[in-house]
Amino acid sequence: MILNDNAVVLRRGDSGEYGRWAVLLTEGHGLLPVRFVGVNRSAGKLKALSEPMVWGEYRLFFSSRSPAVHVTGGSLSSTFPSLRGDLSRTLTALALCEMAHRLATERVASPSKYRLLCRALCLLDQGANPWLETAFGLKLLEAAGYSLSELPMPPPERPVWRALHDAALEDLADIPWRLETSRRFLQVVYDHVEAHAERPLLARKMPQRLDNFAASLRAPKSKETVPC
User: Fold this and answer.
1) Residue 9 belongs to a domain
2) What pTM, to 2 d.p., does this model score?
């Protein structure tokens, strides 16, 4: 059976010598592991459709004899080129995709999660808002049935916490920005996503890895001795 469905690629990897596997968040089938046959050949097609953070329409082949789903065609809706040109926004986009991967259910349709991710990536492509990752995580948790809106917060932070739940992603600029508050809120989101997924998030470790990499570039290099 061949069906078309809209989807965002959450992650991908190589499969054999010429193939690729990917995980899609689809509009009509929820989380869906798929295969791309032969895309790593020099003349392979569909490479762009198999890259993370790509949004498109996918032609999916479901076999009655195998659980594997193969992508046989499709068309691009967006590759989000602006965010790909900015490292900070790229890492945020990957964090959004990772959270969606952890909280979506395989082959169970959840159009609200799919639309939330598409909207967040579109906004991130237009420009970065420092509240976006936290607000996305809170709304994703709510869509998965794990609302944190009633979680106790210190009195000075309660209005911001409430606003992040209530405001549309497009209206986050209206929420006053507080760096330390944002960091604490994001850690709360990460903690709950990890608890429900029962797996750690790579996104949590990425800032420290980047700091370590930047420090290694600044460190003085020892002079190499060349034998005479």
Assistant:
1) yes
2) 0.90
pLDDT tens for residues 175-194? 999 999 999 999 999 999 99
Q: Where are the alpha helices (DSSP H) in 71-170?
A: 81-84, 87-103, 111-126, 132-143, 158-166
Same domain, 36 and 87: no
The position carrying tokens 């295969």 is 35
Identify the CA nearest to 204 among candidates 126, 150, 137, 112.
137
Residues 68, 130 within the same domain = no
Structural domain containing residue 30: 2-80
Tell whether the torsion through CA atoms of 7, 90, 132 and 31 is positive or negative: positive
Residues 6+ apart with CB under 8 A from 136: 96, 99, 116, 117, 120, 169
Q: What is the pLDDT of residue 214?
A: 62
Last residue of a domain, one of 54, 80, 106: 80
Please tell me whether residues 135 and 66 are part of one structural domain: no
- Domain assignment of residue 217, yes or no: no
pLDDT digits (tens, 9 = 90+) for 120-164: 999 999 998 999 999 999 999 999 999 999 999 999 999 999 999
CA distances (Å), origin 193, targets 96, 103, 186, 202:
11, 7, 11, 12
Q: Which helix (H) or strand (E) holds 214?
A: helix 202-218
